[in-house]
Amino acid sequence: MKKLFFTAAIAVLGFTSVNAQEDVTVKGFEKGDVFISGAVGFGTEKTGDLDSNVFNIAPKAGYFVSNNIAVGLQAGFTSLSSDDNGVDTVDSNEYSVGAFGRYYFTPATQFSLFTELGVDYTSGDNKLTDVGYDGFDIAFAPGISYFVSKNFAIEASVGVLGYSTSEADFDGAESTDNFDVGLNLNDINFGVVYKFN
């Protein structure tokens, strides 16, 4: 009787284990998947009488054209403001719109590494000086994605290589060009991903 009970217990545990494994393996990406992602951030800093605030939002939407490659569109909005003892010193907004491509190394698994190349058109304005600017950014960044459920994942990316140029909207303005290489903890971006079935 003990042997029969032991055999039945092993069979029940084995069946439960197989069902649990089937539930776990439905994670990751594959060709034809559509996803939306985005990041929202807010920061504040105070030095003496100087108060500074920054807010940004960056939604994305992508489509897997193959099992490893996703392409998509992205947008962004950033607001910067600061005041010194109640007097505004910075009050500006920046808008961006662009496209991106990603290569996932293990897209069908719960955890995957990816690289992303993005290109954005940017436009901004300074409300205090009433001067705007236009430009574009190119950025390459590695990242990681981790599925916490069948449809939701969290991701993080780090800016490593980037080039940007911008020019103010007035006669005789010269462009400002920036080229960045390296890891900077300020360039780590976290986001949430939703995958449609």
UniProtKB/TrEMBL annotation:
Residues 8-196 form the Outer membrane protein beta-barrel domain. Gene3D superfamilies: 2.40.160.20. Keywords: Signal. It holds the Pfam family OMP_b-brl. Residues 1-20 form the signal peptide. InterPro entries: Beta-barrel_OMP, OMP/PagP_B-barrel. This is Outer membrane protein beta-barrel domain-containing protein. It comes from Lacinutrix venerupis.
